[in-house]
Amino acid sequence: xxxxxxxxxxxxxxxxxxxxxxxxxxxxxxxxxxxxxxxxxxxxxxxxxxxxxxxxxxxxxxxxxxxxxxxxxxxxxxxxxxxxxxxxxxxxxxxxxxxxxxxxxxxxxxxxxxxxxxxxxxxxxxxxxxxxxxxxxxxxxxxxxxxxxxxxxxxxxxxxxxxxxxxxxxxxxxxxxxxxxxxxxxxxxxxxxxxxxxxxxxxxxxxxxxxxxxxxxxxxxxxxxxxxxxxxxxxxxxxxxxxxxxxxxxxxxxxxxxxxxxxxxxxxxxxxxxxxxxxxxxxxxxxxxxxxxxxxxxxxxxxxxxxxxxxxxxxxxxxxxxxxxxxxxxxxxxxxxxxxxxxxxxxxxxxxxxxxxxxxxxxxxxxxxxxxxxxxxxxxxxxxxxxxxxxxxxxxxxxxxxxxxxxxxxxxxxxxxxxxxxxxxxxxxxxxxxxxxxxxxxxxxxxxxxxxxxxxxxxxxxxxxxxxxxxxxxxxxxxxxxxxxxxxxxxxxxxxxxxxxxxxxxxxxxxxxxxxxxxxxxxxxxxxxxxxxxxxxxxxxxxxxxxxxxxxxxxxxxxxxxxxxxxxxxxxxxxxxxxxxxxxxxxxxxxxxxxxxxxxxxxxxxxxxxxxxxxxxxxxxxxxxxxxxxxxxxxxxxxxxxxxxxxxxxxxxxxxxxxxxxxxxxxxxxxxxxxxxxxxxxxxxxxxxxxxxxxxxxxxxxxxxxxxxxxxxxxxxxxxxxxxxxxxxxxxxxxxxxxxxxxxxxxxxxxxxxxxxxxxxxxxxxxxxxxxxxxxxxxxxxxxxxxxxxxxxxxxxxxxxxxxxxxxxxxxxxxxxxxxxxxxxxxxxxxxxxxxxxxxxxxxxxxxxxxxxxxxxxxxxxxxxxxxxxxxxxxxxxxxxxxxxxxxxxxxxxxxxxxxxxxxxxxxxxxxxxxxxxxxxxxxxxxxxxxxxxxxxxxxxxxxxxxxxxxxxxxxxxxxxxxxxxxxxxxxxxxxxxxxxxxxxxxxxxxxxxxxxxxxxxxxxxxxxxxxxxxxxxxxxxxxxxxxxxxxxxxxxxxxxxxxxxxxxxxxxxxxxxxxxxxxxxxxxxxxxxxxxxxxxxxxxxxxxxxxxxxxxxxxxxxxxxxxxxxxxxxxxxxxxxxxxxxxxxxxxxxxxxxxxxxxxxxxxxxxxxxxxxxxxxxxxxxxxxxxxxxxxxxxx
Length: 1181
Known about the structure:
The protein is of the alpha+beta class. Helices cover 30% and strands 21% of the residues.
C-alpha cells in the first residue's frame, strides 16, 4: 500500500521512525539518506534541460518553421470547413446510392412482371433449363484414396463458361451470363426449383442493361423464397472444400428485406418426455431460429414444464444482436428435461414478455415460437385473455421428434392465432422449418403493395464472392398473380439486392486534407458504423454481419453518446469536445480536443460525421508551377543522393504497394503467436504467400508487435496514397522511388492520371526536408550527443532519416499518417518519447551486438496569417545504452567538473544517495505516459526497456497507480479472432452436452449420391445426428481447432491530472520503500526514484496492460441489456392486413424414411466418420 508523505509533528515522528527502519534494513546504504525532494527536483531540471537542448540543436523545429516561411510562395493555406465538407460528402454518397436504388427498382419490377407472365409446368425437366450452375465445378467429395481420386457428386447440365479477371470484382467473371446457386440441402431437380430457374432466367437481360447504364454496379442478386440465388455477373461459387451451407434465405440482408422487425419469444417444452434425442433436436432448432433474427429484432428464450423461466439471465426481450444471441446459444445447452408439461405456464410467460412496454423493442411483428413433443391442452383460455379477438400475436408451433402424440392441438393453436404449424421429426427438417415462418410474416407486406416497396440498406458484412466489406440495398419482390376468385396472392417471391463496396463509398470521402488525425465516419439507425478508421473486423465467420457500435469504435463518453443519438435521429449538428483516444498502436491514451460535425445522408438510414482536431482546420496545398524547381526537388528522391541528404521513405509502404491500395488478406500460422494482435488474421481478398513472407520478414526483423501492427490492417484500411495510376509498385522502397522518378520523367505532376494534390505536396516536402538537412543536420556530430538518427516526417508523405545508414534500422511506418509517433506528436505538446514495444515474454538482445533506439519526436507548429497548422514532425533517435549512462550522471550529485571517484560519501558521514553512485541501492527510471520503461540506471533493466513497467517492478508501478500518477482506461475489442479455448477431458464432472451447428453435423458425415439424394435428403441430417449422439470422443478427436470470433479486453494507462512533485511510502512493514515521482516538463515522461526492494514479502498484484481475451460474459451482457443504447428501427411496419388469408397454417412431414435405407446409410456413415474434418462456415453474399 502506498501512502502520501505525512505532515505535522506526529506524522514527522512516524516518518522518521520508518526511515530508521529502512536504514537498519539496508546496511549497504549505511551513511546515505534517500534524496530530498529539492535534490530530485534539481535532477529533473537537469534532465529537462538536456532533452530540450538536444531537441533544439538537432530537431530543427525553429529552422523548419523558417524554411516553410521562406518558401511561402510555393504553397497556399487552405481551410477545411466542416459543415461544407459533410454536406458535400453526404450528397455524393446519396447520389451513389440513388443510382443503385434505380437499378434495384428496375430489377424488382421486372421480376414481378416475369413471374406473373410465367406459366407453371408440372412436367418440366432439368434438361429443359439452360443455366450456369455456380457450384458445378466444386461439387465433389474427396476420398481417402491414395491416388487422390474424386467421386463426382452428380452430373450437371450447367453451361460451360469462360471467365476473365476483373479488377472491380477482384475475381474472374463473365458479363454475358448470370450464375445460379442452390443450397446443398435442396434438390435442384424438383419441380418447384426448375420452374423458379425457368422464370428467373429472364432477369439476365435486366442485369446486363443495368450494367450498361451504370458500369460501376457490382453484384446484382435475386434471392428467391425457394432458396435459389441468381446473381450477376457469373462467377464460380466460392464454396468451402467440403460442405456449402449457404442459403440466401438465412442471410441478414434477405431477412431484412423479406419482413418487418420482429418481437419474438421462443418457449421450449422441457418436460420429462422431451429427454434424449428430442431435447437435442429442440436445442439445435433454437440455435437455427436465432440465426433468422437480425439486429432490428428483439427476442427472449424460455423453457417451461410446470413453470416457465428464461434460459439465460435476460429477464425481458433483448436486441437480437450477435452478442445477445451468443448468450442464448450457450445457455440453451443447459436445458434439462424433467417434470410435466403445462402449456399455460409457457404461453402466459410469453404473452407477459410481449406486453411489457417499459423496455426497448421492435414494436412490429409479435410472435411466439413454441417447441414441444406434443400435448393435449389447447390453452384456449390463455389466447382469449391475451390475444383475441385482435390476434396481434402470431403463434407458431413446432412438433419435434419422432412420436405418436396427437398433433391436432398444436395445429389448432397456430391456426387460431394467425401462425403456422411445423413438424421437425429429424435434424434434416430444422433449417427449412425454422425459416419458413418468414413467408407468413411477409403476407402483410405483399398485401400492402407499393407502400411496402421500401429500399433498405443493410449493416456492413463480408461479401461471399470476394468484394470485401459491403452494404446491400434490398427490395422485396411480390407475387402479383391472382387465383380464380381474383384474390391477391400473398406470398413473397424473394428479395432483390445490389451490393455497394465500402471502398467505393470511402473514395467519396476526403482523406489527406484532413490530416493524420482527422477522419470521416458514418453510422446507421442501430448506431453501428458503416465507415470508421477503427472498423477492422477480423472476419472468420461469414454468417455474422459486422456490427461495431460507434461507442465501441471509439472510447465512450457522454458527449459521444449525445452525438450518436443526434445522428440516429437524423439531425445535423456540430460540437467541440475534449475526449480520450487510443493511439494507433493501442498502447497509449491521449486526451485531445476534437470538433465533431454531422448530417444525415438523405434517402438512406445512414448519417455522416466528420472529426477534426483544431490543428487540421487548415492544411497546405502546394503549388509548384516552376518545372525547374520540380526537377530539382525530384533529384533529392534519387537513391544516389541518400548518402549526403539522408534516406527518403515515401508512402505508400512496401506492404501497401505489394497489391496496390486494395485490401489484402493475410493468414498464416506464423502470425499466430507472440502477441494477441498477431493471432487475428485477416484483411480481405485472396491469400498471398509473398505477402505472408514479407510480413514474416518484418516480424522476424523487428520482433515488435507494434511494428507489425503499424504495417497491419489499421494502416491498410485507413491511409494508402495513390499518386498515379501507372505507377509500378514495389516492395522495396529504393526500387519504388526509382519507379516513381521514371514515371515523372514521362508525365508531369499535373497529369490527369495522377493525384495532383498528393504529388505537389510530396515534391514540396521533399525540397523542404532537404533544406533541413543542409541547414541543421549536416553540420552536427550525432555521436557527440549519442544519437543514432535524426528524422523528419511530413503531411505530404515524406519521411527523411539521416544519416543514410540509420534507415537500415528504421522500423517505423513509412506512411506518416499510419505512424503512431507521428499522430501522437500532433496531439501532444512537447517531446514525445517512444521506446520500442516489448511484450511480457521478451527476453532481450545482446546489447554489444545490437543497438536499441528510443524515438523522441515533436510537432512543428506553423502560424501563417493567423492560421495555425502542423505540417510536420521532427525528432531524434537516442542510443539507449549511451543515454542510460548519461541519465545516471544527470540524476546524480556530480557536476560536469566532478570525477566519479572523488565524491563518494564516507560511511561515517551522512549524504544523499544518487542514481549513479548508489545504483545498487537506488532505482531511478524514466517511464512514459503509457507506463512503459524508457530509461533506467539499472543495467539489468536495459533489455526490458519498452516493457510495461509492472513487468519490471510490479510493486512500484502499483504504488504509482494507487497514488494517482496514472489513470486507467479499460475497453473491449469486439472485432477480434481467437483460437478456440481448450476443453479439458479430465475431472470428475461429466462432460457438457455439445450442441453443434449444422456445419459441424454435416462434417461428421456427408456421404450421399445423386441417385439417393431425392429419396433421403429430408432425413440425411437425422442420420448425421445419430452418429453425432453416439460418438462424442470421435467428434472431439476428429475436429480441427477452428478460430472463433472473440472479445479482447484492453487496458491502457495514461497520466492523470497530478503534475506536482510527489513523495510517498510503499508501506509494507520491514519491506517498506520510499519513492519520489515527478513529471518532466514538456515531455511525456515521469521521473521516478525509489529504494530497491529489500525483501519479497510485500509482492503487489501485477497490473496488466497487454491485451487479453475477455473472460466469459465480460463485459456483462446481463447488465448491459438493462441499459440498452439508443437506437431506432425501420420507420414503417407491416404486421397486419385485414384481407390476409390465414387458412394455410400448417403441414406435417413429407414422408417416413425407409428403415433399410437408414441402416445402410448409417453403416456407411460410421465407417467413414473418423476421417471427417470440419469446414469453414459458409460465406454470405
